[in-house]
Amino acid sequence: MKAPGLPADQQFFADLFSGLVLNPQLLGRVWFASQPASLPVGSLCIDFPRLDIVLRGEYGKLPGKVNEEVRRKCIGDDKVITCRPADLLKPELPQYREESKDIARCEEDVLSYALFPQVARKFMEARNNPKPAEPEKKAADPNAVRELYVEDLGR
Question: CA-based angle 69:67:3, to the nearest 5?
Fold first, then answer.
């Protein structure tokens, strides 16, 4: 089933599911898993172990009608997501604001902490508490007298 205006990567999945999931006769001959020890004769093996996520609706709505018998075999009694999947996520930014309030100076610091907690904490602590600069050593005078010891290895 050709969905109008889909990008190439999404069209791949649309074609895959239209051809296999929406056609139960083909689905009986396809294995959606890593290589099984022995495939039935005439079967195909597709390395796609998380078909249940797609049929549950975690990637959004499929581009066609799904055979409910096939869906039930794959996801069992799990609830199908019919809304925007991101709406089911709990907000985490307030938690990261609270955790980083002692080291974060701005919103970008909070976002850095949310993405990379260990690295961002070390960076911000070092930035907020710089080590005192070591006193500069004077450059050696190139004309200064130096002692040089030579050992005679020829004896």
Answer: 160
Q: What is the DSSP string of 100-153?
A: TTTT--SHHHHHHHHH-HHHHHHHHHHHHSPPPPPPPPPPPPTTS---------
List, for residues 69-122, the tens digit of each pLDDT value. 888 888 888 899 988 888 888 999 999 999 999 999 999 999 999 999 999 999
**Phi (first) and psi of residue 101, to 5 degrees:** -60, -30
In this prediction the pTM is: 0.46
Any long-range contacts for 24-29 (C-beta under 8 Å, 24+ apart)?
Answer: 24/67, 24/69, 24/70, 27/70
Q: How far, in Å, CA of 151 to CA of 155, rounded?
A: 10
Which structure tokens are listed for 111?
């976002």
DSSP state of 23: -
> Tokens 């907000």 label which residue?
91
